[in-house]
Each structure stands twice: as C-alpha cells, then as structure tokens.
C-alpha cells in the first residue's frame, strides 16, 4: 500500500507471487526469444486485499485465477521489452492478456482454481461462456496441454484484409 493508504488504514494491498515454470508446452517457432526455462520463476500479481479501518478483506480479480498454492496453471506468455506506446520497459515475461492463465489441476485444462473457487471443466467453460464463437480457452476446457499444443501447431495466423 502507498504510504498515504498505510497512514489512513484504507486502500488496496496487491498480492505479489513468485511462480515456478514446470515445463513449456508450446513455443512459436518464429519467436525472437527462447521460452522461459523449466525451473525458472516469474513474478506475478493476482488479487490482493482491500483494507478498511486496518482490516484486510481478500479481493479476487474477476475472470482470473488467484494463483493459489497447491494448484497448477497454464499461462500464455510473451517477452516484452517495450510498452504499447513504444517506451522501454524492464524486459520480462508477461501474460498474453486477459485469459492468459488457465486452471490446470491433474493435467486437465479448466480444472482447478479460478476466481478463488475450485471448478471442473464444465463449470469453467460456463464461467467463460460468452455469446458468439467459442474462444480457444473455452474449446480447450477438459483437454490436456498436449491437445492445446496440437491446436496451436495447426492454427492459422489471422491476417487482416485491406
């Protein structure tokens, strides 16, 4: 919390975690950098606490996992060295947008912790369900990382027409 928030006893305390890379399931063959190595660690932020009158209350990011110990997750990452505006940022592995982290307990996509609750693939798919074509995230619920890697290997690049 900021010094001002600490003095007032009101504010938000972010949750910072160190997560371990167990293995890389897929990497774009045209990537300009090597993927993070198995055994390496990444710094992540997930949820936190709101503070009122000095009392902490857990806060969960909507539609995102809390990254709770004892659970396994898949995360789509990219190597970032500059911000969207072109300014230099500290280089590091960043999550590839919303939905970049998926519950993956027992090697099943969509099984595990998300939004602070433990779910199975069917419930996860329902939580993620939005009108329109199913996202890759929704299509992969109930499948394995190997099946996701196969889908990524056979995916076609989206191109824009003039």
Describe what this molecule looks like in 3D:
By secondary structure, the protein is an alpha+beta fold. It has one domain. 18% of the residues lie in helices and 33% in strands. It has four helices and nine strands. It has a three-stranded antiparallel β-sheet. A hairpin with a 5-residue loop joins strand 5 (77-82) and strand 6 (88-95). 11% of the residues are buried.
Topology, element by element:
Blueprint: H1 3-8, E1 11-20, E2 41-52, E3 55-59, E4 73-75, E5 77-82, E6 88-95, E7 101-103, E8 112-114, E9 117-119, H2 121-128, H3 136-140, H4 145-154
Antiparallel strand pairs: 1-2, 2-3, 4-7, 5-6, 8-9
Key terms:
two-stranded antiparallel ribbon; three-stranded antiparallel β-sheet; 18% helix; 4 helices; globular; 162 residues; alpha+beta
Radius of gyration: 18 Å
Name the helicity range.
10-25%
How many beta-strand elements?
9
- Number of helices, counting only DSSP H or I runs of 4 residues or more: 4
Flag low-confidence runs: none
Biggest sheet statistics: 3 strands, antiparallel
Number of domain units? 1
Assign the structural class, choosing from mainly alpha, mainly beta, alpha/beta, alpha+beta, or little secondary structure.
Answer: alpha+beta
The rounded distance between the terminal residues' Cα atoms is 47 Å
Strand arrangement within the widest β-sheet reads 1-2-3
Q: Summarize model confidence as the mean pLDDT.
A: 88
Provide the succession of SSEs. HEEEEEEEEEHHH
Shape assignment: globular
User: How much beta, percentage-wise?
Assistant: 25-35%
Oligomer: single chain
């Amino acid at each position: 919390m900021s010094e001002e928030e600490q003095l007032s006893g009101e504010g938000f305390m972010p949750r910072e975690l160190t997560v371990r890379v167990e293995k890389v399931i897929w990497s774009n063959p045209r990537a300009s950098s090597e993927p993070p190595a198995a055994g390496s660690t990444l710094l992540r932020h997930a949820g936190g606490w709101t503070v009122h009158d000095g009392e902490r209350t857990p806060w969960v990011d909507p539609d995102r996992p809390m990254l709770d110990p004892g659970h396994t997750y898949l995360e789509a990452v990219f190597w970032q060295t500059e911000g969207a505006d072109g300014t230099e940022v500290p280089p590091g592995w960043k999550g590839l947008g919303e939905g970049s982290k998926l519950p993956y307990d027992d090697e099943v996509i969509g099984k595990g912790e998300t939004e602070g609750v433990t779910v199975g693939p069917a419930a996860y798919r329902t939580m993620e369900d939005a009108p329109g074509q199913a996202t890759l995230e929704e299509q992969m619920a109930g499948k394995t990382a190997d099946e996701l890697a196969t889908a990524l290997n056979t995916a076609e690049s989206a191109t824009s027409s003039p």
